[in-house]
Amino acid sequence: MSRARSSLRCLLQVPEEQAFCILVKIMFEYGHRNLFRQNFEELHLKFYQLERLMEDQLPELFNHFMEVGIEAHMFASQWFLTLFTAKFPLLIVFRILDVYLSEGQDTVFLIAVALLKTSRKDLLSLDFEGILKYFRVSLPKKYRTDENARELLSVAMGLKKSNKKLKKYEKEYITMKEQEMQQEDPVTRLQRENKRLQEANMRLEQENDDLAHELVISKIALRNELDVVEETAECLQKELVHTHKLLAEVEEDKARLELEAMQLKEMCRRELQHSEAENSRNAAIITDYKQICTQLSERLEKQQTAARQELAQVKSQIQSCERCSRLLSPDGTKCFTAPAPQEAEDPRLKSAESMVRELELQLAQTKLALVESECKTQDLTHQLGAALSEVQTSKSTWFQKTLNTLKDATNKGPPQRDADALRKSST
Questions:
Q1: Cα(85)–Cα(102) distance, rounded to whole angstroms?
Q2: Neighbouring C-beta atoms of residue 239, cutoff 10 Å
Q3: For the segment 266-295, what is each residue's pLDDT rounded down to a tens digit?
């Protein structure tokens, strides 16, 4: 049962290539191809051997077949030619094929005798037409169940397999054919042989013509294919040469671009270091400017406070003087009702006012320098960021121009428009 299942899986699941290989093996190594050759002479031999086995093992059934005129070729031709695959269910066919592949071609005789033996009672009760119908319809239906299939294989495997008898029957068949040929009229035999040879000769000539025609067509097709292949090879050779040239050019460009990239990286690194140094220096300068501005603001506030105090003392002294108090109004401002003598002006007041103006001028200049430094730092930072982004995206030789622009922008002074505006606001 397990072997039948393995055969079933083999036949149903193997690819087409493997199934075809199995067919080739059956036809050639198992000798199944010989049944179809030389006017089925090998097949007639199998019929004779089956009849002799029936005569030996089933004499009653053999005599009944002889009485009604049934011969082996009337029912056994499909058994031998198709290996029971034409009429019988697949359930029994798979098992028969499994035994056939395992035991060889003589398995067909065992299965045939087992079929006749298990159906002996039914066949003995039938006439000529009934026997043929039984072999064609009733016998295949009988083995649709698993129980009957097992019983058939058990009977077949229980039969004694005698290769000596089959060889003996083969010799008898050959001897009988030779005697028939000797008893036949030589002229008739030679005429039949001549006719057979003429037919074979005509068939071979036709095959030769067909082969010659196929050969010519094949040569023409091969020549055309060869021309196409040669043209294709020539085109491919040209493309290969062109590709080699392109590859060399691409490699040169790659080497050049790698060198330029290294140079640009080194230049960017230097410029970045220089820019970082400039930023650090500018940051230090801005810090110093801020510190100076803070100090100047503190100093200016102190001087303004001292100047106010001195101005208040001067006003108090002027008000204490009867003659000088006439020059000032009650709220402390100047009064021009009477001309004031020039010698009455206090020199300390003039010096304080000039010092305040100088301090305000210094503060405006410091703020202007601070704004110029911040503008310059912002320009440098913006130009550096633009240069780095351009290097990362394009990596082209135009980066050199950007670096030159950076250098030129670094050497230039702050924008004049902002400086003028600051100067105007300070004045």
A1: 17
A2: 10
A3: 988 898 898 888 888 888 888 887 888 788
